[in-house]
Specification:
Number of helices: 6
Largest sheet: none
Strand content: under 5%
């Protein structure tokens, strides 16, 4: 009788038919310890193979996809707010740092009456808002095309 027992990895590989060696089969037939291990591993593998997969009464895939889409929508909305904030800060910083250059333009406004200034400022803000919304809309369209 052989006193060198087979390793657990060797017995498991033999059961799963990953290796086939006549020496292993001969050793298992002669060694009661290795034969007991083989039988216990066979019982364990048969029990694992007999487990049926769990079925749900609802569609797990649809729920997970809805959660992913909701998260992506929140990320896109947050990204839009961050973009607007960064652009606003950038524009305001440019205006503040270039005040010495803009000062002659303001002197032109001081020479006009109140209604003339209000008309120019409201018109400029409307044009700026329109252009900014147009740029933002095109950005969102391109981003959606990339995500598809």
């Amino acid at each position: 009788m052989n006193t060198n027992h087979l390793t657990d990895d060797t017995i498991q590989a033999y059961i799963l038919q990953e290796i086939s060696d006549d020496k292993i089969a001969l050793h298992i037939s002669e060694c009661s310890d290795c034969k007991a291990k083989l039988e216990s591993y066979q019982t364990l593998i048969n029990a694992v193979n007999s487990i049926t997969s769990e079925t749900f009464s609802f569609d797990v895939t649809a729920i997970v996809l809805q959660k992913i889409e909701a998260t992506e929508t929140q990320k896109i909305a947050l990204g839009s707010y961050v973009l607007i904030t960064v652009l606003s800060v950038f524009i305001l910083s440019i205006i503040l740092f270039s005040f010495s250059i803009i000062k002659p333009i303001f002197q032109l406004f001081w020479s006009l009456d109140f209604f003339g200034n209000a008309f120019i400022i409201v018109s400029a803000l409307c044009v700026f808002t329109f252009l900014f919304n147009d740029i933002l809309r095109k950005y969102k369209q391109k981003k959606m095309l990339l995500l598809q």
